[in-house]
Design goal:
The chain is of the alpha+beta class and 329 residues long. It has 3 domains: 92 residues, Serine Threonine Protein Phosphatase 5, Tetratricopeptide repeat; 79 residues, Immunoglobulin-like, CATH 2.60.40; 75 residues, no CATH class. The chain has 12 helices and 7 strands. α3 packs parallel to α5. The chain starts with a helix and ends in a 19-residue tail after the last helix.
Length: 329
């Protein structure tokens, strides 16, 4: 465990001096971590005797960082800790909401991601000089600083630590007339739970959703049809394949039977068309006449193999239920 995690354990165990020491080491490594300042402020305020001045200084620092980074939950927690420190110092009149050092409330940070990259955007960052924008990308942090066009102040945006490691050499940023965006290359592909990291050790990206094998191979599994059979649903694709399977011809008995199962069917592998072509090819002349007459006269809506019935008259068009047959000019 790192210093921050050990400091959290010490704080919960009411070992405040040890917690202060551990959080001080953690802040030295990550000086923009809001949670560390809040925790050290709590430890300084609760120790005996309390160091309320140091506790208030840490709370003020946490408010400034949280407001700059626009983290609502952190702003509330740091403001709450600041109120407690001011109350302990009997400075009740100072117990008001502090807005921190955010320079421009119009600029709105946002982020979006895919499996490979995390992109941070600063919307409404208008008129930023490209040569004066400073973007520092590290393995576990990113900071953006630039002068505001409408004032003499500087806008600061920091994320430290990031949720997971990134590759600075493959990351980049761009300054446009209306916004600044930073593209961070993830070391481990996957989805992050959030932009910023915390002390719970959850820094591993969420693996990407598994793609079904039938999508990758292009061979979807056969659909299961409702059935009342005790043996379960019947695989009709298999039934058609068995019916259309080409058997070995005379003189070819030495070949493997499975070779005939794997022969390419006609019409690009359409089992249904091959089935009816095979049926027509193997039929006697009367059956063939019945099939041709019924199919042509019914406009493709009927197919009969009974010549005794079909020969009696014209086969009428019989569209499927819910459809209507129309003549085309």
């Amino acid at each position: 465990m790192d210093e921050a995690q050990l400091g959290k354990i010490a704080l919960e165990a009411k070992q405040y001096d040890e917690a202060i020491e551990l959080y001080t080491k953690a802040i030295a490594k990550q000086p923009n971590a809001v949670d560390y300042y809040i925790a050290r402020s709590q430890a300084s305020h609760r120790r005996s005797p309390p160091n309320r001045v140091q506790a208030l200084a840490d709370a003020d620092k946490a408010v400034n960082l949280a407001t700059t980074r626009q983290r609502r939950e952190a702003i509330f927690e740091s403001q709450q800790q600041r109120f407690i420190c001011l109350y302990g110092l009997e400075r009740r009149r100072s117990c008001c909401f502090k807005y921190g050092n955010r320079k421009s409330p119009k600029i709105k940070p946002t982020w979006l991601e895919n499996q490979e990259n995390m992109t941070i955007e600063l919307l409404n960052a208008r008129g930023v000089p490209k040569d004066q924008a400073v973007v520092d990308i590290q393995e576990r942090s990113v900071s953006i600083n630039f002068p505001l066009a409408d004032s003499s102040s500087t806008y600061e945006y920091n994320v430290d630590p990031l949720f997971s490691a990134i590759d600075p050499s493959q990351s980049s940023y761009s300054v446009t007339p209306n916004k600044i965006f930073v593209v961070l290359k993830k070391v481990s592909p996957g989805y992050w739970k959030r932009l910023e990291g915390v002390d719970d050790g959850s820094t591993a990206p969420t693996p990407a959703p598994r793609i079904p094998q039938e999508v990758l191979t292009g061979r979807p599994s056969a659909p299961a049809y409702p059935t009342s059979s005790r043996k379960g649903p019947k695989d009709w694709d298999k039934v058609v394949k068995e019916a259309t399977r080409k058997e070995p011809k005379e003189g070819e008995k030495g070949q493997n039977k499975e070779e005939y199962d794997d022969l390419d069917l006609e019409d690009g592998g359409d089992d249904v068309n091959f089935f009816f072509k095979k049926l027509f090819a193997d039929a006697d002349p009367d059956t063939r006449k019945a099939m041709m007459k019924s199919y042509q006269e019914s406009n493709g809506t009927a197919l009969s193999t009974n010549w005794a019935e079909v020969s009696k008259g014209k086969v009428e068009t019989s569209p499927p239920d819910g459809m209507e047959a129309k003549k085309w000019n």
